[in-house]
Structures are given as C-alpha cells and as structure tokens.
Design brief:
The protein is of the alpha+beta class. It is 24% helix and 34% strand. A nine-stranded antiparallel beta sheet has the order 4-3-2-1-7-6-5-9-8, with helices on one face. The longest helix is centred in the first third of the chain and has 18 residues.
Length: 188
C-alpha cells in the first residue's frame, strides 16, 4: 500500500512539474490572430446599449457605414436616423465579450425543482465598443453596440479601424496622437 501511495504521489508531482513548463507560441495560433477578418457588411442589425449624449435608452436598429459622409450611422427599427459618429471622431474601437444570464434563466432559477440549476446558464454577448471625441461638437464618450456574433464584430471593428485611420495595439485599435515622444518638463 505504501508503494502504491509513493507511485501516485510521484505521478501527481510529475504532472504538476510538467504543467509549470514555459509555453512556446503556437505558430498557427499567432498567424490566425493576425489574419484579416472577412469584409464587414454595409449595414447590420445592432442593439444600441448607450453612451451617446442625449440617447439614454437601449434600442434595436441598424448600424451602417455611410462612406459618402464618412460616418457610422445608427437607424432605429423604423429606419429613422437616430445618431451618427464621424469616422474622424473615433479614438479607439475594440470587440468585447461578456457572459450574461438570459432573463428566462434568472426567473427560472427561483422555481423549486429537482434537476439542473438554471442559475448557471449564461450566454456570450458580443459588443462593438467605440470611444469617440468629436472635434466639431466637443462631445466625447464611449458607446457600445450588441452585434450577432464574434465574426461580425471582428469584421466591423477592422472596417471601422481602417475607415477611421486607427492602428492596432494588440486587440484594440487606437488613434495615434502626436509624435509619440515624451516632453522633457524638468526645470531649467
């Protein structure tokens, strides 16, 4: 019995030591992350989640690229223009994923029954998040739009970055400002 215990302990320690080894980057994974996403559609269904001054309520609608006027346009479900963000006002753009509990699961978790706990059910929600600073109106903020899936969000983020002149910094696209040099503010 003692020999069996030593054998199991040695095996467990071997697995733990192996798990602590340095990881090497998988070349296939790094090349795939740099791949250009598919072209974004000209317009897509979106749910506005807030962030634009004067538009506090969430609303369903259509998000469109208005290349003629160089802006990202949001229309409500009645096809009426609600607001727009000029391409030159976009400071940064990125995709965000959050886990949310559906409303039905929130309600069902309080119903007594024997079985799978429904409170653990969560779905992934994909967001397009844009930080903007409009030079014409001096209004800035952060807004987000809920889109259908990850591929759509990635392609829209890439399209906005290209149309707005943003550069990639990891998974986020940002607008570079200045020459990137640090000013010397020391006393003379």
């Amino acid at each position: 019995m003692r020999l069996f215990g030593i054998l199991v302990l040695t095996l467990v320690m071997g697995v733990a030591v192996y798990a602590q080894r340095p990881r090497t980057a998988d070349p296939a994974a790094t090349d795939a992350s740099k791949a250009v996403p598919a072209a974004a559609p000209q317009s897509m269904k979106a749910k506005y989640e807030g962030g634009i001054f004067g538009h506090n309520k969430t609303m369903e609608g259509t998000l469109s690229f208005d290349d003629t006027n160089e802006r990202l346009l949001f229309r409500n479900d009645k096809k009426k223009e609600v607001f727009f963000i000029p391409y030159n006002a976009v400071s940064s753009a990125f995709s965000d994923t959050q886990k949310r509990r559906p409303a039905a699961a929130s309600v069902a978790q309080h119903i007594p029954y024997i079985g799978f706990p429904l409170g653990f059910i969560k779905t992934k929600v994909r967001y397009l998040t844009i930080q903007f600073a409009d030079p014409d109106t001096n209004v800035s903020g952060i807004t987000s739009f809920r889109l259908a899936d990850k591929d759509l969000v990635d392609s829209v983020v890439y399209a906005i970055a290209n149309k707005s002149g943003l550069t990639a910094r990891g998974e986020v696209y940002v607008r570079k400002t200045g020459g990137g040099k640090i000013k010397d503010v020391s006393m003379p």
